[in-house]
Every structure is written in structure tokens, then in C-alpha cells.
């Protein structure tokens, strides 16, 4: 895979004016999604596609994290005609929560001591 054929910003889901913090956050988010240790075992075709996506993510991050390589990439992209970018996947937004809040997760419920509703036999 060569970096001349793909848009590295699109791989990470970012605009070309993204900051270093945005690049790092996008990389870590995608790394968690596609890393072999965090995905469920199952369909080998899906795992192969995730492995290919992981390789693209690593290449994109390697180029964009270094300011010199990023500047060279941006200069190269400026000379190329703009590519068509597929629209991003829609993000589920709950009506009761804002986008910045994580989903509510509840752990196991454990009773400590006596339950006042239970009566001794």
C-alpha cells in the first residue's frame, strides 16, 4: 500500500487541518476498534478486513504524527486533484445524552448486609 493512493486524513476520519491532539485521539480510538486483542473472535473475513484497516491506520498515524512528514504529505496532496471521499458513517446520538458523554454502563449489583424487604423465616 502506498500513501500516494489514499487520503491519510480520511483513514483517521479527520479534516486536513486537524491538530496533533485530534490525530492522536482518532488513532487511539481506531486502534481500540481494530486491534486483535480487543475484537471478538469470530468471522475470519471480518478479522482480515480489520487487520487491513489496522495496517492503514498505523501507516496514516506514522506519517501524520511527524510534523516534517506531515508537511511533505500536505505539499504532495496539494499538487494532486481532490479525491472523492466516502461519507462518514452516521453517529448514533441519543436524545437524552450529549455526544461528549459516554454511554451509561452498570456493573453487577451486590447486596451488602440485610435487605429490609426480606423477612427472616
Q: How is the secondary structure organized here?
A:
Layout: H1 8-12, H2 20-34, H3 44-65, H4 67-79
Helix pairs in contact: 2-3
Q: Which labels suit this protein?
A:
Helix Hairpins, mainly alpha, elongated, 121 residues
Describe it for me?
This protein is an all-alpha fold. The protein has a domain at 8-79: Helix Hairpins. The protein has 4 helices and no strands. The protein has helices at residues 8-12, 20-34, 44-65, 67-79. Helix 2 (20-34) runs antiparallel to helix 3 (44-65). The longest helix is centred in the middle third of the chain and has 22 residues, at 44-65. The protein is elongated.
Please report the number of helical segments.
Answer: 4
What's the shape?
A: elongated
Percent of sequence in beta strands = under 5%
Distance between the termini: 71 Å
Which parts are unreliable, with pLDDT below 50 for 5 consecutive residues or more? none
What is the mean predicted local confidence, pLDDT?
76
Tell how many strands the DSSP assignment holds: 0
Helix content: 40-55%
Largest sheet: none
Radius of gyration: 22 Å
Write down the CATH class of one domain: Mainly Alpha
**What is the CATH architecture assignment of one domain?**
Orthogonal Bundle
**Would you list the SSEs in sequence order as H and E?**
HHHH
What is the CATH superfamily of one domain? DnaJ domain
> Strand pairing plus helix content: what structural class?
mainly alpha
Instruction: Could you tell me the CATH topology label of one domain.
Output: Helix Hairpins
Amino acid at each position: 500500500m502506498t500513501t500516494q493512493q489514499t487520503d491519510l486524513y480520511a483513514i483517521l476520519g479527520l479534516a486536513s487541518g486537524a491538530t496533533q491532539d485530534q490525530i492522536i485521539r482518532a488513532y487511539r480510538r481506531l486502534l481500540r476498534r481494530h486491534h486483535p486483542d480487543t475484537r471478538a473472535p469470530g468471522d475470519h473475513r471480518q478479522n482480515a478486513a480489520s487487520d487491513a484497516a489496522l495496517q492503514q491506520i498505523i501507516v496514516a498515524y506514522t506519517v501524520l504524527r511527524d510534523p516534517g512528514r506531515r508537511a511533505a504529505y500536505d505539499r504532495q496532496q496539494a499538487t494532486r486533484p481532490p479525491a472523492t471521499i466516502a461519507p462518514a458513517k452516521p453517529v448514533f446520538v441519543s436524545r437524552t445524552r450529549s455526544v461528549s458523554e459516554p454511554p451509561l454502563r452498570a456493573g453487577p449489583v451486590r447486596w451488602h448486609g440485610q435487605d429490609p424487604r426480606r423477612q427472616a423465616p
